Amino acid sequence: MTEWFRVAADGRITLTLHIQPGAKKTGFAGLHGEALKIRLAAPPVDGKANEALIKFVAETLKLPKSAVSLKSGQSSRSKVLEVIGADAARVAALAVD
Hints:
This protein is of the alpha+beta class. Helices cover 19% and strands 34% of the residues. Strands 1, 2, 3, 4, 5 and 6 form a 6-stranded mixed beta sheet that branches. Strand 3 (27-32) and strand 4 (35-39) form a beta hairpin. The protein is globular, with a radius of gyration of 12 Å. The mean pLDDT is 94.
């Protein structure tokens, strides 16, 4: 398994991400060290980038926003998300999209 995501025994998936806010468009940008890099069009002010990140990941994995939560990195480019109810194979495919 890769380093940027981990599957817990209860099925929760933890994602280690590197975020680039203020990009021209939102999308995945491959791996950045041991994290998956995501470019966000949202600016890094007033939590807008965090909201956009949760929405983007939830929509990509076809989950409700309530299934995705920010565990750490509230004001950092390095973030950890927890995802409930996602298929591990679909999460793994994010790095190649």
